Amino acid sequence: MNNNLPTRTVTVRNPQGLHARPADLLVRMASAHQSNILIGRDGELVDCKSILSLLTLGAAQGTVLTVSADGEDADEALAAIEELFEAGFDDTNELPGTESTLDG
Q1: Distance between CA atoms of 38 and 20, rounded to whole angstroms?
Q2: Where are the domains of the chain?
Q3: I need a labelling partner for 60 at 20 to 30 A (CA). Which of 18, 48, 73, 84 fits?
Q4: Annotated catalytic residue: which of 19, 51, 80, 82?
Q5: Is 25:84 a contact under the CB 8 Å cutoff?
Q6: Residues sharing a CB contact under 8 Å with residue 27, sequence separation 6 or more, in sequence order
Q7: What local confidence, expressed as pLDDT, does residue 101 receive?
Q8: pLDDT (tens digit, 9 = 90+) per residue, 9-66?
Q9: Which CATH architecture has domain 7-88?
Q10: Would you call 19 a catalytic residue per the annotation?
């Protein structure tokens, strides 16, 4: 992977980790962008547009992940994904007190 690619670091905030529902939201967010997006930790990178790949990360609460994107909308994609993680995947059941910040 090109070391000059835009990269962000995100932390899984959900008490149940990156399980099926937030992984689905992440895939939808990533798929809305043209860029190739990789996410992972400890040198293991997976396609952010593949729910099965995301689930293999076993990302529990507190896991720090690195997200990289390559494409014309890379910065936009990374900002959207970072916001999704910061919002706790908008799961008010998992993060009491978190208000909805995502549309629909």
Answers
A1: 18
A2: 7-88
A3: 73
A4: 19
A5: yes
A6: 48, 49, 50, 51, 54
A7: 43
A8: 999 998 899 999 999 999 999 999 999 999 999 989 999 999 999 999 999 999 999 9
A9: 2-Layer Sandwich (3.30)
A10: yes
